[in-house]
């Protein structure tokens, strides 16, 4: 089990500013950081106009940035080989930028398309979050760049709107059809709180999420089995949900109430689509229950809902994996109050809510289950609700 990372943001900022000097030749205009996230509950609900409840992590992406005199996007990442990707304006269209450069370039494209006036930018990025590990590294990158652009060009844009820009960049420019949860979490989360977001109205509420005073810890179990959203399974789930909404004649599955679920399922012939609907409808109801419990200060009572969410994702939505199931089973058998996969699934991370006194035994049981099953050794760390994206240095 890893020790909690101390707040190293200042040191990371100095490092990325130094790298910026080497790449660009001048100091940056500033430095911005945006976190990754884990979702407490509300999985595969955001593209069904439903509810989500993420917290921000202390890990994320930091960017040193400056304005350019032309309209080029120059981006370099310390996680890649450091060689800058240079994107001219005539490449700024969906499909025009191969590789990771599409993420920062997509933000500039999406901002301009939304009507914001901005010129070219120099960007040097550094991340301390595993890439493609289900902790929303891509949203962290996008939100850091989006906030940097908004600040540098003094754009009159709200954080809600920046989240939409980031979502559009990823779904339309990069080509991965994600929902609004991850950039919303990265931009809107507040320390000590979970973000209760209605993805239809985009209304949000900060729900106190104070584990420490409840004697609880939230472990993130990174299975280190990469998840790939671009391989079609995610898009396939979205398509099934849209088909179901069309059959049920509702704008989105959010509109099916739990009380009407049986009647709705009767109208759907395909057993796979029936299961997908059951997941989305029951998951939305579980989010509301968890929010209710947290609002009453009953964090220790949410465990069974986390477990029910996992079972629904495993059996009805079919997005879990052997590693994720093993992590949940081992954690719960070792005494965790609840556990579930988090994020899109197909690999990535699970979370386990446990009494702080049981952290070591839950982590050890999970590690030995992985060893027995001959899975890669998981990376386990305790998460707390961190703050959202911000400017790091003036
Ligand atoms: C990914 C997507 C999100 C959301 C989750 C599943 O993280 O980026 O928009 O759909 O999967 O809840």
Unreliable segments of 5+ consecutive residues: 1-6
Number of strands: 13
Q: Which fold does the CATH topology of the largest domain refer to?
A: Ribosomal Protein S5, domain 2
Ligand list: alpha-D-galactopyranose
Oligomer: single chain
* Biggest sheet strand line-up: 5-4-6-3-1-13
Count of separate structural domains: 2
User: Could you state the order of secondary-structure elements as H and E?
Assistant: HEEEEEHEHHHEEEHHHHHEEHEE
Instruction: Label the overall shape.
Output: globular
Radius of gyration: 21 Å
- Proportion of residues in extended strands: 15-25%
Supply the number of helical segments: 11
Task: Describe the protein in words.
There is one protein chain. By secondary structure, this protein is an alpha+beta fold. It has 2 domains: 2-206 and 386-393, 2-Layer Sandwich (Ribosomal Protein S5, domain 2); 210-383, GHMP kinase, C-terminal domain (Alpha-Beta Plaits). The protein is built from 11 helices and 13 strands. The chain has helices at residues 9-24, 102-113, 137-152, 159-174, 181-188, 233-248, 261-266, 271-295, 303-315, 322-333, 359-372; strands at residues 30-39, 51-52, 54-67, 73-77, 85-87, 121-127, 193-198, 204-208, 216-222, 338-342, 349-355, 379-383, 390-393. The strands form 3 sheets. Strands 5-4-6-3-1-13 form a 6-stranded mixed β-sheet, with helices on both faces. Helix 3 (137-152) packs across helix 4 (159-174), helix 4 (159-174) runs antiparallel to helix 5 and helix 6 crosses helix 8 (271-295). The longest helix is centred in the C-terminal third of the chain and has 25 residues, at 271-295. It is globular. The protein starts with 8 loop residues before the first helix and ends with a strand. Mean pLDDT is 95; it is low at 1-6.
